[in-house]
Automatic annotation (TrEMBL):
CDD domains: LbH_SAT (cd03354). PROSITE patterns: HEXAPEP_TRANSFERASES (PS00101). This is Serine acetyltransferase. GO terms for biological process: cysteine biosynthetic process from serine.
Length: 272
């Protein structure tokens, strides 16, 4: 009698498999990091376990231990599997778009922009489920540790890349679509003390340059580029490049997916 095969098939997780392989490589290359790599990756049972361990150690303080934080983070991941899915997409986006990223393990272990947005995702879970005080606590620690201040009420898609990330601020009613890239010192903020829906809506595939400020309840169309240092106060049509203070349209986006090409240069007319 032929042996029956089990109907159970182990789930395939290529991101986690690659991270584990790269962890072994790091241990061979830099033995002094072996303790960190074993604790953070090799001894962990899943990508979510590794991410929770890493974030808990980064966010822990005298106010909340890493053990308690691991429980907080694990609970969020178990309740909402989309958090882990988005974290994987963010890691892939960072590897594909950041020329300083050579291994997919690097965002998990070393890149504060990646770590900050994963901390936000946990805080957003608690905000969405009505546990606002826990969400505020996580926001506070994320800001203190990573220098990135994202209100837990903001809605952020997947495939996000925050390059350098220092001093990024995203307000409560901001919405960020999928596959968006932004550099350090970006602000998605309001214009004053108004209440209600008061922050920008960034559609899919947008590239936001370093130091850009997008202010108010305005919409930035899909696959647009915002030049470094710009102050955007009005809606931006899809597939355009804007620059200046205040920002004005200076041309087309230059490609189909500016957030993935990361091309921050645009042509300017010159006197002949």
């Amino acid at each position: 009698m032929a042996q029956q095969k089990s109907p159970y098939v182990a789930p395939v997780d290529p991101v986690w498999t690659r991270i584990q392989t790269e962890a072994d490589d790091i241990v061979r290359e830099e033995p002094m990091l072996a303790g960190l790599i074993y604790a953070s990756v090799i001894n962990r049972k899943s990508f979510e376990d590794a991410l929770g361990y890493r974030l808990a150690h980064k966010l822990a303080s005298g106010e909340m231990t890493d053990g308690l934080l691991r429980e907080v983070i694990q609970s969020a991941h178990e309740a909402d599997p989309s958090i882990g899915a988005a974290a994987r997409a963010d890691a892939v986006a960072t590897l594909e778009r950041d020329p300083a990223c050579h291994r997919i393990i690097q965002p998990l272990m070393f890149f504060k922009g990646y770590q900050a947005i994963q901390s936000y995702r946990v805080a957003h879970h608690y905000w969405a489920t009505g546990r606002h005080n826990m969400a505020y606590f996580l926001q506070m620690r994320t800001s203190e540790v990573f220098g990135v201040d994202i209100h837990p009420g903001a809605r952020i898609g997947k495939g996000i890349m925050m390059d350098h990330a220092h001093s990024i601020v995203i307000g409560e009613t901001a919405v960020v679509g999928d596959n968006v890239s932004m550099l350090h010192s970006v602000t998605l903020g309001g214009t004053g003390k108004e209440h209600g829906d008061r922050h920008p809506k960034i559609e899919n595939g947008v590239l936001i340059g370093a130091g850009a400020k997008v202010l108010g309840d305005i919409r930035v169309g899909h696959c647009s580029r915002i030049a470094a240092g710009s102050v955007v106060l009005e809606d931006v049509p899809p597939c355009k490049t804007v620059a200046g203070v205040p920002a004005r349209i200076v041309g087309e986006a230059g490609c189909d997916q500016p957030s993935q090409s990361m091309d921050q240069l645009f042509g300017l007319a010159t006197d002949t």
